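Consider the tokenized backbone below.
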């Protein structure tokens, strides 16, 4: 027999909290994650009867009009990407300002495929990645990048936390297309934006120097990703993002086999070439 206290019961005269509904169809649910620029929620698409993920620019970021416009533009560009290794973007929109709060602003959002799985960052922390698995995961990342580069979109923020492995199928899914580019284009430096600070370990030398970035920058970051999958650490460590960025520009990465003797000559040669300082010397 169970006992229910009065505090557990919803009183009949108390209104239920109203769910947040975006674009008249997406009912927001639980918070799935917080990033440097955006929050991600689980949501129900009432029109198509499916569960989706909604990525919403944080209100403090949305106050920067330039950043907001770029978030929207990138969302629309990524929505045109249709590839099995890229998290799909289904829709974009804006949540209007709160009429009861004069300080609130319009906040753009993206509606995306909901991926149930673990990030490569979690696999690295568990120490459960063999060389064979690492190469398989990176193959999925490269497949996504080949497709996006053909469409003229450079990711700019390839790192273990932005790559998921689907629980049921093992499929690799690259996330956060375009948002890194929006952060970079708004003139953010490594010290200005937390989103960029966390990424210093995967910055290409040209990114670290504030130079123009193209598809070869993504290949450098993917080299850093493979290095970390194989060794459990990124190629460069430092006390601050600036010291790490300096190493990307000036210092040769230690050989991966110093930390993992199972790394083969062939894989080491791939790492050596992908981590070249000069973009012309990479793949």
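A designed sequence for it:
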């Amino acid at each position: 027999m169970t006992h229910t206290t009065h505090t557990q019961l919803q009183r009949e005269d108390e209104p239920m909290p109203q769910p947040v509904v975006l674009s008249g169809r997406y009912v927001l649910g639980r918070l799935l994650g917080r990033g440097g620029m955006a929050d991600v929620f689980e949501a129900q698409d009432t029109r198509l009867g499916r569960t989706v993920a909604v990525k919403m620019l944080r209100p403090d970021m949305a106050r920067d009009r330039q950043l907001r416009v770029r978030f929207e533009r990138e969302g629309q560009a990524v929505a045109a990407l249709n590839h099995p290794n890229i998290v799909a973007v289904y829709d974009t929109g804006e949540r209007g300002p709160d009429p009861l709060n004069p300080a609130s602003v319009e906040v753009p959002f993206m509606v995306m495929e909901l991926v149930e799985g673990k990030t490569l960052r979690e696999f690295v922390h568990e120490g459960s990645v063999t060389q064979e698995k690492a190469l398989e995961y990176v193959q999925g990342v490269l497949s996504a990048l080949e497709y996006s580069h053909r469409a003229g979109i450079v990711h700019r923020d390839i790192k273990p936390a932005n790559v998921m492995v689907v629980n049921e199928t093992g499929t690799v899914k690259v996330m956060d297309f375009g948002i890194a580019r929006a952060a970079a284009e708004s003139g953010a430096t490594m010290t200005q934006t937390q989103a960029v600070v966390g990424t210093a370990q995967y910055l290409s030398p040209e990114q670290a120097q504030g130079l123009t970035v193209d598809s070869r920058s993504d290949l450098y970051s993917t080299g850093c990703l493979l290095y970390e999958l194989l060794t459990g650490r990124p190629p460069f460590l430092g006390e601050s993002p600036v010291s790490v960025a300096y190493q990307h520009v000036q210092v040769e990465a230690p050989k991966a086999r110093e930390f993992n003797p199972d790394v083969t000559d062939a894989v080491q040669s791939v790492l050596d070439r992908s981590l070249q300082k000069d973009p012309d010397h990479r793949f």
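Residues 131-150 form the longest helix (20 residues).
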